[in-house]
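Table 4 source record.
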Amino acid sequence: MLKKAGTLLLICASLATWISCGKTTNHFVYAAINASNEIYVFREDPNSGVLTQLSLSPIGAGVGIQTLLIHPSNKYLYASNSGEGDVSLFAISSDGALNEVLPRTPVGVGPTAMVMDSAGAYLYVANSGGNSVSVFSIGSGGALTPVGTQVPVGLSPLDMAIDPTGSILYITGNGTLGSEIQVFSLNAGVLTSTSGSPYQTGTDPQGVVVSPSGANVYTANTNDDSVSEFTSASGALTPVAGSPFGGSTFASPNSLYISKTGGFLCVTNKGSSNISVYAIASDGSLSVISASPFASVAAPSVIAGDPNGEYIFVGNQQAGQTAVQSFAVTASSGILTAIASYKLPGTATSIVVLP
């Protein structure tokens, strides 16, 4: 028995540079760097949240790369290229490497945000320069086929989110109501504006997220330092009492992430260089947890979580301090614990994690 234990110890030690003993499946973290037209790739140790940049990183991408999205099959990664009006498709290798499949697919002017249904059947691309959404069906090998023509949406999209059923699309931006959320029902990739849409929200809604149940929608309102809370009944939105939720401690909220359990909302606050964490009540209302906010390196923007719900990764965008920072998440309390920061050559405009 002692000999076996000693052997196991030696095995763990010899593998220390690859994985920690415990979970043995590494995840890969991808960060889009808009200024350098590159994707940085890290291996995440699932036992510690520590990142190691791969030797193959960075990987060249399209001009003005903006948003990354991973197909549910975990075989493909898509990237919107705002500087050249197209979307790139990459095949993902078992070692985390990306191999671009050419040619790139043309979309509208200034493609930024992208969302996909959970089945991986349709891709929706927000064209911020053209006030429209391009829709594609996803076929063999991840290939994209246009569904109809670009759909005018009457605003310059800031962000998008899709509900868990894949039947409702939410788009934030500035339109007829000022800052608003537009809601569309989805049927085989066809967008239909819902009754009651658009809905007014806080100023400059840079981020939007839907709860895992689909019952709640939240927007990060950058210019009025608040988060708006809505209940959703098949896409019909009703503000939660007391919405929007704000506070001077949390300046310029930008991106949103809901914990895997659905119990906590994390918000990056660019202006105050911290991350606020809110407990989500059964009615969708928010309350700041007592330990919040949690300091970040500087000007946090984009945020993503790992598949186990144990770690989050935040892109910091202040000049001279651009980095990806990792945090451990306590599932029962929502408390964040800083792990490490990893330098990047420019601002990360999107971060995704491969399960």
